[in-house]
Design brief:
InterPro entries: DUF5318. Strands 1, 2, 3, 4 and 5 form a five-stranded antiparallel beta sheet that branches. The chain is elongated, with a radius of gyration of 19 Å. It has one domain (3-16, 27-110). The protein is an alpha+beta fold. The protein has helices at 4-16, 21-24, 29-38, 75-84, and strands at residues 40-45, 53-61, 72-73, 88-95, 102-110. It is built from four helices and five strands, in the order H-H-H-E-E-E-H-E-E.
Length: 130
């Protein structure tokens, strides 16, 4: 799913003065750090400050990912996960490491479709100690 129409609407509000910069340039320190270490650099200038090029950060979510769910992943990691995991969702965020602009860019699904005949994996439970 592409969020470019929503992005354009937000930017139109910023340019018209209906929305303040503090409302759209609010990237958390965690998002900025994820952009630095896991992001993919682009050649697209930030639509707000126009000084820094945007970075794309991809986050993964899925019920079968366990502790990996919610983590930022590089494109190489996504490629490996696509081949080895059941279906999971990827959400890609645009981030400006200069001014803090951030907006959801797109979302998509990767991984293998679950096999309907396959039994769900059981997890072991530890016996309660008394």
């Amino acid at each position: 799913m592409d969020y470019s129409l929503q992005r354009r609407a937000v930017l139109a509000d910023v340019y018209a003065g209906r929305t303040g910069l503090f409302e759209v340039c609010d990237a958390s320190p965690y998002l900025t750090r994820a952009a630095k270490y896991h992001g993919e650099a682009t050649d697209v200038a930030c639509p707000v400050c126009r000084k820094v090029e945007l970075t794309l950060v991809s986050y993964v979510y899925g019920e079968h990912l366990g502790p990996t769910a919610g983590q930022a992943k590089t494109q190489a990691e996504l490629t490996r996960m696509d081949a080895a995991q059941e279906e999971f969702s990827v959400y890609t965020v645009q981030v400006c490491r200069g001014c803090g602009w951030n907006h959801l860019d797109c979302s998509y699904v990767l991984g293998a479709e679950p096999d309907p005949g396959r039994q769900p994996r059981r997890t072991r439970r530890r016996a309660a100690t008394e």
